[in-house]
C-alpha cells in the first residue's frame, strides 16, 4: 500500500507530470524523480522481505513469487524508465521495463497460485479476478495513449491491494492448518 500512496503523492506534486497520460515509472524521470525511484526501491524491498513470512504462512511457491515481485519492483527503481513513447530505448530503460514486467508477471501468477490457499469461494474468486483483470486492463490500455497513466494506475492499485489482502489473510492463519495448507500453495 505504501507504493500506491507514494505514487499518488508524486502524481500530485511533480511539476509537468500528467498522471492521466504518464506511466507511474515516468515520475522518476527528471527533477523530483528521486521520490518515485525511492518508492520503487523501498516498496520493492519491503515486499521482497515479506516473502519470508508469506512462505511460512502460505507456501514456498507463493512466497517465492512475492519475492520476485518485490525484487523486480526494487530493481525497476534502480534503473530509470524512458519516456513513453520513446524512439530509442536506453539500456537503463530496457532494464527498468524488464524488471517491471517480471514484477508484474510474478504478481499475476501469485494470484493463481494463492487462489488454492485456504480456498473459499470469495477468496478464489478475488484471486482469479485480479489475476485475469490486471493483464487484460494493461493490454487494453496499450492502445489508449492519452489515458495510459490512469489505466496503469488502476492495474497497480488492483494488484498491490490484492497483495496486501494476501498478506493480511496470511497473518490471520491458524496454526492448526499450517501443515496441510503449506503443501497446497
Structure in words:
The two termini are 23 Å apart. The protein has helices at 2-13, 34-57, 60-78, 91-114, 121-141, 148-171, 178-184. The radius of gyration is 17 Å and the shape is globular. Mean pLDDT is 90; it is low at 174-183. Helices cover 71% and strands 0% of the residues. The longest helix is centred in the first third of the chain and has 24 residues, at 34-57. It has 185 residues and is an all-alpha fold. Helix 1 (2-13) packs antiparallel against helix 2, helix 4 crosses helix 6 (148-171) and helix 5 (121-141) packs antiparallel against helix 6. It has one domain.
Question: What is the straight-line distance between the termini?
Answer: 23 Å
Shape, per Cα inertia axes: globular
Oligomer: single chain
Beta content: under 5%
Poorly predicted ranges:
174-183
Broad structural category: mainly alpha
Number of domains: 1
Main beta sheet: none
Total E-strand runs: 0
Radius of gyration based on Cα positions: 17 Å
Number of helices: 7
Q: N-to-C SSE series?
A: HHHHHHH
Helices and strands in order, then pairings?
Layout: H1 2-13, H2 34-57, H3 60-78, H4 91-114, H5 121-141, H6 148-171, H7 178-184
Brief characterization of the structure:
The chain has about 180 residues and is mostly helical. Helices cover about 70% and strands about 0% of the residues.
What are the key terms here?
mainly alpha, 71% helix, globular
Amino acid at each position: 500500500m505504501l507504493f500506491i500512496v507514494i505514487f499518488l503523492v508524486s502524481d500530485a506534486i511533480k511539476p509537468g507530470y500528467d498522471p492521466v497520460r504518464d506511466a507511474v515509472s515516468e515520475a522518476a524521470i527528471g527533477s523530483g524523480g528521486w521520490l518515485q525511484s525511492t518508492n520503487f526501491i523501498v516498496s520493492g524491498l519491503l515486499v521482497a522481505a515479506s516473502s519470508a513470512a508469506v512462505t511460512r504462512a502460505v507456501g514456498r511457491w507463493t512466497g517465492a513469487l512475492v519475492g520476485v515481485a518485490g525484487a523486480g519492483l526494487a530493481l525497476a527503481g534502480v534503473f530509470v524508465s524512458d519516456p513513453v513513447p520513446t524512439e530509442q530505448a536506453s539500456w537503463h530503460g530496457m532494464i527498468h521495463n524488464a524488471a517491471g514486467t517480471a514484477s508484474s508477471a510474478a504478481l499475476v501468477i501469485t494470484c493463481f497460485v494463492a487462489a488454492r490457499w485456504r480456498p473459499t469461494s470469495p477468496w478464489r474468486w478475488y484471486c482469479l479476478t485480479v489475476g485475469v483483470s490486471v493483464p487484460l486492463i494493461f493490454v487494453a490500455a496499450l492502445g489508449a495513449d492519452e489515458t495510459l497513466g490512469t489505466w496503469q494506475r488502476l492495474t497497480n492499485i488492483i494488484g498491490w491491494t490484492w497483495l496486501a489482502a494476501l498478506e493480511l489473510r496470511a497473518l490471520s492463519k491458524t496454526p492448526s492448518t499450517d501443515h496441510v495448507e503449506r503443501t497446497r500453495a
